[in-house]
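Minutes, structural biology subgroup

Action item carried over from last meeting: produce the structure token record for Alpha-1,6-mannosyltransferase subunit (Aspergillus mulundensis). EB confirmed the sequence was re-checked against the source entry. Recorded below for completeness.
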Amino acid sequence: MQFAVPPRKGPSPPPYARASLLTFHRRKQLKATAILTLALLAVFFLLSQLFRNRAGNSAAPIGTSGVVIVTLLDRASYSDSYLQKIIKNREDYAERHGYTNFFANLSDYDSYIGNSPRSWGIVPAVRHAMASHPSATYFFHLDAHALFMNPNESLEARLLNKHRLESLMRRDVPVVPPDSIIKTFSHLRSEDIDLIATNDAEDLATGSFVIRQGDFARFFLDTWFDPLYRSYNFAKAETHSLEHIVQWHPTVLARLALVPQRVINSYSKDSTHAAVDGTYKDGDLIIRFFECDTDPKRSCEKEMGPYYSLWAKKLKIE
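Output recorded by EB:
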């Protein structure tokens, strides 16, 4: 026997009509959610590009310098005449190649250095330069007791060009000469590099190095300046601290390129511990009077005098 379905009472719509209405509202909600999600992703993308530019991983804005030369001056220990020669030499070189100079005063970092040797001042000086020039790409720290002797050769041509750096990188060699068991990686390429340095016959050179702006640079400098390292009784303070970090932290070693000493760190004939073929020759970009400020038998001002005169004479010829 079949029973008739009793009719619904009142004007209420049938169940299928209600389901269609709910589906319509659901689709509108999903569409709105999708649009909002896409908008948020677009905002996050734009912000990431902005912060990337600020970190120095993209091209520097027009009108800004891609290279900053960092020089730490001890104004209390040397005559104004001597310091002005150093400054003039740096200013001439920077002007020729569109670079920027950052002259730091050692006394400005005394409160950060504390009881540690004052040679540690190079680390906060470079960090200060990076904070002051966030759009620059490279920071070249050069010891004050040094001169640019080949003014027409740019750092790009000498070192920073991708293919040039590739040809200069010393692979699978001891980080600390002559026989450190930790060696530079053999697989690295120029695009992997954020820190460029040299070594002499005994140590990594802290008086002449290049670091690239970015997250690694900030991490590296903060690690290097850690109070634990500054309080440790390293015989050569920041130099031995750097050697420790590079040898025992593969993250740093994987970003390091060692290049021949004379590329950016030629020693004067009176300097000790030069590497094989590490002493200055005519045509080199830089001459450095290594340890002239720590050897009581030497005078930085006297050693620099003849080379400064030669440089000044060269400018007049040109």
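Discussion: The chain has one domain: 73-317.
Next step: EB to file the record with the rest of the batch.
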